[in-house]
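Q: For a teaching handout, I want to show students what a protein-ligand complex looks like in token form. Below are the inputs, and the small molecule is pyridoxal-5'-phosphate. Please produce the holo structure.
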Amino acid sequence: KLNSHPAGRHFLQIPGPSTVPDRILRAMDYPTIDHRGPEFQALGKKVLADIRKIFQTESPVVIYPGSGTGAWEAALVNTLSPGDAVLMYETGHFATLWKKIADKLGLQSEFIGNDWRRGVDASKIEARLAEDKEHKIKAVCVVHNETSTGVTSDIAAVRRAIDRARHPALLLVDTISGLGSVDYRHDEWGVDVTVSGSQKGLMLPPGISFNAVSQKAIAASRNAKLPKAYWGWDEILESNKNGFWPYTPATNLLYGLSEACDMLLEEGLTNVFARHQRHAAATRAAVEAWGMEVLCQNPAEYSGVLTAVVMPKDASGQHYNADAFRKVVLENFNMSLGQGLSKVSGWVFRIGHLGDFNDLTLMGTLSGVEMGFELAGVPHQKGGVLAAMAHLASTAPGAAKLQ
Ligand code: PLP
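A: Here is the structure, written as tokens, with pyridoxal-5'-phosphate included.
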């Protein structure tokens, strides 16, 4: 084993969990307090107010101790009844997992198929809803940032499609990997339930997840008949009015959340989004210079969170193995890259450029990738790192020529 005690910091360049910055680690390193006492109450009120700003909503945001998968389930069980039809869109691995949950819960899910290289085509949703004259479809579920492919879908366009079809279906959106990295507007885009998680753009460890809920979603929850206990919004929203939870909340993760919101709001969401887009563009410049292909085929949908790279093919037409390549990078450079999931397994790897991430983190990341190609014998053109560096230098905000 080459790096049993590697010096320096591990490069966690998977598309989440992302690196937890020192400021958040320190904020969580504080004694756990009485979750029914006044100190906690102040914290609870603060995080419940701050998190709304991150979702760009005036509506309540429910915070669960639980992974994103739990928050997916919560979005469905709070708003729907057994046998309800839901229209979902196959953008990739995570959209497929959400559909499986819907099926396990006894919903009638319908999948609009896609080739995992582009995002949601809102016109297909509009056409399907227009056919549904009896309004059997109760919800449209889409993934905003598909973490398995590096494709970001246009949620405002989905909202317009639902409105054009004059259909009353709820709009449920997963932005587990988009929130806090790429622009997301719960209110402006008319989303009814937004699902998210802690371990990506919020820069926290895994362990808490979210449902931002519209008034229409809360109204639907009063008649929804799927069984729910732990995930039920009603008691949580009631306790949250006073800054508390009806059970033991994840106190130390909430310390971290408070700090994360401070960090994002101090930088300013617009700046956070621009930073991510700039790093994504520099990453794509590297991929292009290497003579390789990005998995996403629609430039308007390139993700600011991660870039999925297609491995080149050998003389027999087989892709070089992405996982063997990732192993070389991990063992030599102490960097984790994201694996290809399910349909794209073995021929795609993913570079996460999200969260607590700056120009030099990107340069280190891309250097590890380019050196990894060399060591693994993956054919590539030199100069990806230089191309990314040129992009960063030409777009740096603080250029100051000495003469
Ligand atoms: N949805 C998306 C888009 C994700 O990226 C993930 C996790 O990576 C999930 C859902 C599932 O979340 P979790 O693994 O926290 O349950």
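A: Two things your students might notice: Residues 11-18+269-395 form a domain with the Aspartate Aminotransferase, domain 1 fold (CATH 3.90.1150.10). The radius of gyration is 22 Å.
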